[in-house]
Fold this sequence. Notes:
Blueprint: E1 3-7, H1 12-23, E2 27-32, H2 39-45, E3 49-53, H3 59-73, E4 78-81, E5 87-88, H4 96-123, E6 127-132, H5 145-165, E7 170-177, H6 184-187, E8 189-190, H7 202-207, H8 222-234, E9 241-244, H9 246-265, H10 267-272
Parallel strand pairs: 1-2, 1-4, 2-3, 4-6, 5-8, 6-7, 7-9
Keywords: Oxidoreductase
InterPro entries: NAD(P)-bd_dom_sf (IPR036291), SDR_fam (IPR002347), SDR_oxidoreductase (IPR051911)
Organism: Streptomyces hyaluromycini
Amino acid sequence: xxxxxxxxxxxxxxxxxxxxxxxxxxxxxxxxxxxxxxxxxxxxxxxxxxxxxxxxxxxxxxxxxxxxxxxxxxxxxxxxxxxxxxxxxxxxxxxxxxxxxxxxxxxxxxxxxxxxxxxxxxxxxxxxxxxxxxxxxxxxxxxxxxxxxxxxxxxxxxxxxxxxxxxxxxxxxxxxxxxxxxxxxxxxxxxxxxxxxxxxxxxxxxxxxxxxxxxxxxxxxxxxxxxxxxxxxxxxxxxxxxxxxxxxxxxxxxxxxxxxxxxxxxxxxxxxxxxxxxxxxxx
Length: 283
């Protein structure tokens, strides 16, 4: 029996993972805004489900919940930072409050969770940390500038965090799904564009739902994504990043290939700014 700590377990990947882990006999420390939403699982699985009320933007509460989980459960093998907030709208038209909520939920909260669990994971000799990211941590679409900001930002944090904590046996994986048939777009905070200057643009159309992809056209299966995340959590040496979905694979691969080609084209100008007489470590 392994023990998992998961944020955002009321729906989506978090709920799917919680159900599957409990069914196979593991323990889950599940956090969510309304723990009553897991009453059905508590009836079926008893004390293998540990629940705590948590708004991940409340850092003080986050620390208390983490302390309580480790105190009550002892070792936690896998931490899954899954809670998130979707925001759709043109950068010019979003409110300050929406921007702050996006950063607070998708960037600051995972950072604070990582900071809170690190001493415990180090003391127990390691563990796996899964951070739900997105193919949107490599590519970008119009009308999702702040969402992409959060994903690109959290990927940068965990790139460095992984290097800092690997010596302690802490393994970090950025999970990067493509489009999955969940209610992400329906649940997202969406601000339809009202500025005449954007009328008729792809970005404005997207904010009004005219360019959105229907669920039946999304390749990702939420159940299979959860299964894949569990497999990653079970690995002794998990990958630093894991794409999930054929769309994520192709779109990210194409974007990275184009970025490498662009970098190669910039080689002459890049080298021209070195000090005279400096020998590059690689040529």
